[in-house]
Write a structure and sequence with these properties.
Oligomer: single chain
Bound molecules: adenosine-5'-diphosphate, magnesium ion
Shape: elongated
Radius of gyration: 24 Å
Cofactor: Mg(2+); Zn(2+)
Keywords: ATP-binding, DNA damage, DNA recombination, DNA repair, DNA-binding, Helicase, Hydrolase, Isomerase, Metal-binding, Nucleotide-binding, Zinc
Enzyme class: isomerase
Strand content: 5-15%
Strand order of the largest sheet: 3-4-2-5-6-1-7
Number of helices: 18
Largest sheet: 7 strands, parallel
Organism: Thalassobaculum litoreum DSM 18839
EC number: 5.6.2.4
Helix content: 40-55%
Number of strands: 13
């Protein structure tokens, strides 16, 4: 059904069966319906799909949705069809003949949403056909994949800039995490340099944020664990060797711990992961290879023995703690040597000067969070594009404002408290 002239609330009830919009959805939908290029950054589970599905239903044209995974496309198509919306996915797993049916539906004007993988969309024939049919808008889900510096770069997303130009339609881009540099990249490549940007809901108030100077990581970790016996947690280390050594050191102290990194035998790796999810009170010492797709609500702490790769990576990694909403502690150790090493990585990466400049700026943002005399959460959320009005009261610097040379920053804190 198309709902020209009806209000989004009606479509929300009648088509999707929901009573009200979740925070942010209505604003994003209004921007998309107004034909604006739009970038929406909303956490996982916030309801990003509805933000483009509802305009597609209301407008009655054809919305092309780029999505990186066949399983994600199929899930959405299945539930849209259950709601009576004509939707289809075009991908390499389709049975012969399916694509022909999809094109017929598109030409007849029935099809509201066409899900498609980026590499398929880049094929000239497909773009010609879509131009002929006429497309209302382009939607790019998981849009951070277009940024080389994002945490999941996909080269095939780069062709989407050309797709947008070719179709000549507004773009709506969605992602769960994107710092300022990634958002810039997305807007430049997908939205012709200008878009309405919405950033919602990054705050995780139950996480106690702590950052300390790195002295002796293992000793600092053991001290941290002293009054956390029996809690489940993740310790992130930079190298496989550090992972092994840290896990062994914990075991020697009688703390149940297992290693996890990409160099382990796959069977050992998945056994360790299963133990972490099912057992209580196990510590997993891991490289960044650990965490994707792990659903354990009662992780009580995340400990970084080294500075993470970026603010986004830091946010993702600490976000694995306290998913149950109960208090959890995240502790990072940072050393200036870590930052210097990260800078060298960037300089030696062979990236263009522009990209190196952006990456250095991002490191500075991360360093700023480490060194701030103000509230850590304010610094973190500001970097993620979601300013927090008041100091949070649940981070180390709020609890114990650091001494500064001129005393100015703590004084401001007292005044604003
Ligand atoms: P995201 O892509 O942001 O991670 P999804 O689009 O997959 O999230 O939505 C997560 C869940 O929230 C889905 O089950 C969806 O049906 C549901 N949902 C979305 N919007 C609403 C709403 N306004 N009211 C109730 N449930 C909603
Ligand atoms: Mg999604």
């Amino acid at each position: 059904p198309a709902f020209p002239g009806r209000c989004p609330e009606t479509a929300l009830h009648d088509v999707f069966g929901f009573a009200e919009f979740r925070p942010g959805q209505r604003d994003v939908i209004d921007s998309i319906l107004a034909g604006r290029d739009t970038l929406a950054v909303m956490p996982t589970g916030a309801g990003k799909s509805l933000c483009f599905q509802l305009p597609a239903v209301m407008d009655g044209g054809l919305t092309v949705v780029v999505s990186p995974l066949i399983a994600l496309m199929e899930d959405q198509v299945r539930s849209l069809r259950l709601q009576g919306v004509c939707a289809a996915a075009m991908h390499s797993g389709n049975a012969p003949g399916t694509n022909g049916d999809i094109w017929r539906q598109a030409r007849s004007g029935e099809l509201r949403l066409l899900y498609i993988a980026p590499e398929r969309l880049a094929l000239d024939g497909i773009l010609d056909d879509l131009s002929d049919i006429g497309v209302t808008r382009l939607v790019v889900d998981e849009a951070h994949c277009i940024s080389q510096w994002g945490h999941a770069f996909r080269p095939d997303y780069l062709t989407l800039a050309r797709v947008r130009e070719r179709l000549g339609v507004p773009t709506a881009a969605f992602t769960a995490t994107a710092d300022a540099a990634t958002r810039r990249d997305i807007v430049d490549r997908l939205c012709g340099g200008d878009a309405r940007e919405f950033v919602f809901g990054f705050d995780r108030p139950n996480l106690d944020l702590r950052i300390a100077e790195k002295r002796s990581p293992v000793k600092q970790l053991l001290a941290f664990l002293e009054d956390r016996k029996g809690e489940s947690g993740i310790v992130y280390c930079l190298s496989r060797r550090a992972v092994e050594e840290t896990a062994a050191a914990l075991c020697r102290q009688g703390i149940p711990a297992v290693p996890y990194h990409a160099g382990l035998d796959p069977e050992v790796r998945s056994a360790n992961q299963d133990r972490f999810v099912t057992e209580d009170g196990l510590v997993v010492c891991a490289t960044i290879a650990f965490g994707m797709g792990i659903d354990k609500p009662d992780v009580r702490f995340v400990f970084h023995t080294d500075v993470p790769g970026s603010v986004e990576a830091y946010y993702q990694e600490i976000g694995r703690a306290g998913r149950d909403g109960l208090p959890a502690t995240v502790q990072m150790l940072y050393g200036l040597a870590d930052i210097a090493q990260r800078r060298r990585f960037v300089d030696e990466s062979g990236a263009s000067e522009d990209q190196r400049r952006i990456e250095h700026r991002r490191l500075n943002t991360l360093l700023g969070i480490c060194e701030t005399a103000g509230c850590r959460r304010q610094a973190l959320l500001a970097a993620l594009g979601e300013p927090l009005a008041q100091p949070c009261g649940n981070c180390d610097t709020c609890r114990e404002p650091p001494e500064t040379l001129d005393g100015l920053v703590p004084a401001q804190k007292v005044l604003s408290a």
